[in-house]
Amino acid sequence: MAKLVFDVVTAPTRATLADGRDIMFFALPGRRPAPVPDRRPLPRRDPDQSQLRYDRATGQWVIVAALRQDRTYKPPADQCPLCPGPTGLTSEVPAPDYDVVVFENRFPSLSGGGRLPPVSAGADFVSGPGAGRCEVICFSSDHCGSFADLKPAHARLVVEAWRHRTADLMAAPGVEQVFCFENRGEEIGVTLTHPHGQIYGYPYLTPRTAAMLSQARDHRNRHGGNLFAELLAREVDHGGRVIARTGLFTAFVPFAARWPVEVHIYPNRFVHNLVELDDDELDGFAQIYLDVLRRFDRMYSTPLPYISALHQFAATGAQADGYFHVELMSIRRGATKLKYLAASESAMDAFISDVTPESVARRLRDLGGQPG
């Protein structure tokens, strides 16, 4: 495995957008960001732009963010707000160029400080400000590219940006969970085609995370050991669903995959989050992540729409059994067919798979990896 040159990573170059939002430029070695003043006439932000409402029927929080109705929707390429804006008048990224950039979302689901409101037995309707943080991360200035197109060193820079933001947000008051993710493809619901992802700092544990941690606690109480480590070990022992494995990471289709295409990537060493990975593991993660995405794009004649979800956990307390991993999933179940989350999935959260995990793993394994 080639060693990437990231033993010393410089801090991002910080600037402020016209409405007071933070923006951070992450640069490849030897490159120096050159942001220009943001001269757009943007109104100052209202810190209380969304609301949290408690659903007593499920015990879950719902985010109400009506301002997102106004977000940019499928602009033409020459009006993309994520492309570089050298004049400071046209873009969310006021700069002649960039490698990787992170900025606060202009239309956030969560924003501002604060904590969850208390839930008491006597209150019928519990709500509070939508506290938290939502950021956008642009993987490249190339409007027509994708994560899979990045060179290994550039992909490693994205990982470093994820890691930096994870560390910052995990330390922020009121943030309980940091979630880095990417939605790729209009079939998934993407409204900006420029290669980008998002980073959420939630003020609560999301339902899926809470469910996984509950399973992990129950497993430890009944059997001892870490649930996720044992699942990884059993997938490796079985072998039939493993699509790629290195000395540091393993990628496999899980036994009970819910999506037509679903791949999980685990470090072979137990860690809670990106911050705990060492330099060699960060290199290895960037490389196996690229490998899997490139296999995805060779499945069909058109690029595979997908969701990438980085599951990260705090190292103490109720999250201590959480094992960092990535879940990649696609709704494409054939060259011309999509999997729709209809009544069983959407109303009952009861997934029905149209393909066997073993057949998907075999196909992805046969596609093979290609060097960047």
TrEMBL record:
Cofactor(s) listed: Zn(2+)
Keyword Transferase annotated: yes
Coiled-coil annotated spans: none
Domain Galactose-1-phosphate uridyl transferase C-terminal as annotated: residue spans: 218-366
Alphabetized PROSITE patterns for the sequence: GAL_P_UDP_TRANSF_I (PS00117)
Catalytic activity: alpha-D-galactose 1-phosphate + UDP-alpha-D-glucose = alpha-D-glucose 1-phosphate + UDP-alpha-D-galactose
Enzyme Commission code: 2.7.7.12
Residues annotated as the enzyme's active site: 196
Pfam family, one: GalP_UDP_tr_C
UniProt xrefs under SUPFAM superfamilies: HIT-like
Entry superkingdom: Bacteria
Pathway: Carbohydrate metabolism; galactose metabolism
Binding site for Zn(2+): 80, 83, 143, 194
Gene Ontology annotations of biological process type: galactose catabolic process via UDP-galactose, Leloir pathway
UniProt keywords, alphabetically: Carbohydrate metabolism, Galactose metabolism, Metal-binding, Nucleotidyltransferase, Transferase, Zinc
GO cellular component assignments: cytoplasm
Enzyme class: transferase
Galactose-1-phosphate uridyl transferase N-terminal domain sequence ranges: 49-205
GO MF assignments: UDP-glucose:hexose-1-phosphate uridylyltransferase activity; zinc ion binding
Keyword Glycosyltransferase (UniProt): no
Manner of cofactor binding, per the entry note: Binds 1 zinc ion per subunit.
PANTHER family, per database record: GALACTOSE-1-PHOSPHATE URIDYLYLTRANSFERASE
Family: Belongs to the galactose-1-phosphate uridylyltransferase type 1 family.
Protein name per its UniProtKB record: Galactose-1-phosphate uridylyltransferase
Record organism: Mycobacterium palustre
High-level lineage: Bacteria, Bacillati, Actinomycetota, Actinomycetes, Mycobacteriales
